[in-house]
Design a protein that fits this description.
Blueprint (H helix, E strand, L loop, with lengths): L3 E3 L23 H4 L5 H8 L4 E3 L2 H7 L7 E3 L1 H7 L4 E6 L10 H13 L4 E6 L3 H13 L2 E7 H6 L1 H9 L3 E5 L5 H9 L7 H13 L4 E3 L6 H7 L1 H12 L6 E5 L4 H15 L6 E7 L4 H4 L1 E6 L8 E6 L21 H8 L4 E5 L1 H15 L5 H20 L4 E6 L7 H8 L10 H9 L7
Parallel strand pairs: 4-14, 5-6, 5-8, 6-7, 9-10, 9-14, 10-13
Antiparallel strand pairs: 1-2, 3-4, 11-12
Helix pairs in contact: 3-5, 4-16, 5-6, 6-8, 9-10, 11-13, 12-13, 16-17
Length: about 450
Amino acid sequence: MPKHWYNIAADLPVPAPAVLHPGTMQPVGPDDLAPLFPMALILQEVSTEREIEIPEPVREVFRLWRPSPLVRAHRLEKALGTPAKIYYKYEGVSPAGSHKPNTAVPQAWYNAQAGIRKIATETGAGQWGSSLAFAGALFGIDVTVFQVRVSYDQKPYRRALMETYGARCIASPSNETNSGRAILAKDPNHPGSLGIAISEAVEVAATNDDTKYALGSVLNHVLMHQTIIGLEAIQQLEMAGDDPDVVVGCTGGGSNFAGISFPFLGLQLRGGRKRRIVAVEPAACPSLTRGKYAYDFGDTAHLTPLTKMHTLGSTFTPPGFHAGGLRYHGMAPLVSHLKELNLIEAVAYHQNACFEAGVLFARSEGIVPAPEANHAVKGAIEEALRCKREGKSETILFNLCGHGHFDMTAYSNYMAGKLVDQPYDEKELAMALSGLPAVSA
């Protein structure tokens, strides 16, 4: 297991744009972030050191499931009739069933070291919420989770898992915060969004001195914690005598994609060979392929700093498709920056095509992927079929970021033909983008 996380900021050919304070439009400093995060995480957020040590107490917890397996998908290759070699890094072996504990455990530990005993957060599908609930239980922290209402209703067993670990789970928008009440006053049946849930969690942390906030994706330190995935994969592929030509990950906020791809990109940026890095996102919430690269708020109530990212607009509410972890209006600033530098590619697929890929994977490899992970499966299959058409024997690596055991309602709907490819509202997108903050940078 790696002893250090990898920080891609050290190898960027052009530094990422600064995070701005929405009041002053000046770069934020540690004091601006102190109400939300412990100082250790703030320092990681702004660090440009290439390696940051993983604390031994964190590695001790990681040993419950890490290193996670790297698997050659022989049966999938055979089913596709492709000359390509397909590998997947399987993160569903964690206690919460996804990659999210890779950052939940260190975030909880750093908060506990700072004397924090309460954390507020948001979650979509519930993988992040259940992961932070698990980590909070380990380090004696009370966790409150605002879950996007449509996912709260779609995935009751994720909620049950959070509560089993000891967290309190609240459907968002809720009556517990000013931002939630304002949304409900306009629409009592609002389906919620990650932007709204973030607003509620940030509001709780900002207005209570004994509570901090934790985010499961998007931020630099979160992406860095996830690089343990790619760092392990590099070592495992060396053991297998192989090296990927294509690296694929699904993208919502960007954490699992960064986790699998950043260490490989780092090798390239330090003079290693070039690879294709492919981000796969949902067509119903396509921030990388349809969003504007601009400064925007990370939440709907505009309580967060401004970050430059690919965004659909902070007020954009995506349709209630089943990959709840990918229903975010913005993309991680670092991932967005890499897209602008043409170091990564992005494609978008509708959910029925992704579920079709997930079912093929399940029937070939035996693992039922989470709806989010189905996007990566779809991306890898498309690359393998391209190799078949071109007669190329390339090596494809993708991140299978979680299992779908809590998502079987979605699979039942797919099998029954009830899963609908939901387009986003073009008028709402135009309105959300028209409301982007004016920044001269």
